[in-house]
Amino acid sequence: MKNPTTTLCAIALLGSLSSHVLAAEQMPYLPPADLVAKVLRANPMVQASTSQIRAEEANRSRLEAGNYEWNIRLGGQQRRSNPPLSQEERFGEWNAALERPLRLPGKAADDAELGSAGVALAETSRGDALHETGRGLLKSWFLWLKESAAAAQWDAQVSLLAKQTKATQRRQQLGDAARLEAIQTDAALAQAEAQAAQARVRKDNAATDLQRRFPGLPLSEPGHTAEPPAIAGDLNEWVDEILTHSHELGMARGETRKAQIAATRSDRDRMPDPTFGLHMSTERGGEDHIVGAYISIPLPGGGRRAAADGAVAQAAATSHREAAARQKVSAEAAALYQSAVAALVTWQANRSAAERLTRAADMTARAYTLGEGNLSDMLTARRLANEAQLAARLAQLETFELRYRLMLDAHRLWALDEEHPGHN
């Protein structure tokens, strides 16, 4: 009898493998998600934003502690006394004081809240760095895929024209084709070879750029093509979801909150913090001993009022910037959704045109082989079919890229924010 634990482990392993296979099928043309997460985490901008979180955490501790430290004052003096009826007297005297500013009620809570707002803003900034780096990776990845597809398409065209050139040369040797036809096929082949060479250069440049920007990301071309599915959900659903997860809007919102807290704190500073101290001293060479306490309160002036008014105005400015960021993100999300939906229609039209032009090119080639057509028509048909196939392939990749960009902005593509426990 099999061990139940072994059976459960096997079932769990099969379930895990099935989920990975399903995820790969649902996200074609993308590199593995675990590798993407590793590459994005290692990006210098993401690393910098992670370090900034630690800096803001230290700043929060500084604000919570405050600049309210004990201060020691020591002094000495020499007293000289000249009584009218006696000799001059000299006395060594000293004094010491221990004092500390006192933070008025409410200011400590504001300082702690201001520090926490800074940490939250830094965490949102890290999420934004991950998101923007993910955008860059997606763009560079699909640029490489598109250039690879173009290079493959032109290689196929070169192979097809090379066969046609050999067939034309053979027909010329048999006296069944004019020398002009051989020249035409050679010229068409040379043009295709030039296009293929340029496509390979663009592919290599895209690959180099991708590897240098995102080292550690393997370049693996998809083994099969996939049809892009339709975008599920309407415009408002996608825009609302993107607004909910937008780091740009989150940063603007965090700046507003931080500025509002700073305005409240600056308003409290209209009332200066007092300084309380204890002092002791000796006079007349130790004959007199003095112990006392004192309190020092600065008199507020126009500078404090101006600082408070400036902080309120700054809070209002950040609030307006937040509204502007919301409008910007909303407009960009709507445009992206519409582009993704339109890209699917464009690809379907390009695919239909490519299929028809390919059939027309095949029929023209058969007619030429049977002596019922001319070479010029066949070469033109092949060129049009090649252009249509390339346009359809690029439109297909463009459709997937826009779809994934929409999913990335809505946080449906790569779950990266959860990697930092402090991120909200």
From TrEMBL:
Signal peptide location: 1-23
Subcellular location: Cell outer membrane
InterPro entries attached to this UniProt entry: OMP_efflux, TolC-like
Keyword line: Cell outer membrane, Coiled coil, Membrane, Signal, Transmembrane, Transmembrane beta strand, Transport
Single GO molecular function: efflux transmembrane transporter activity
Main location: membrane
Gene3D superfamilies from the UniProt entry: Outer membrane efflux proteins (OEP) (1.20.1600.10)
Pfam families with a match to the protein in the record: OEP (PF02321)
Coiled coil: 180-209
GO cellular component: cell outer membrane; efflux pump complex
Family assignment from sequence similarity: Belongs to the outer membrane factor (OMF) (TC 1.B.17) family.
Protein name (Swiss-Prot/TrEMBL): TolC family protein
Organism: Candidatus Proximibacter danicus
Organism classification: Bacteria, Pseudomonadati, Pseudomonadota, Betaproteobacteria, Candidatus Proximibacter
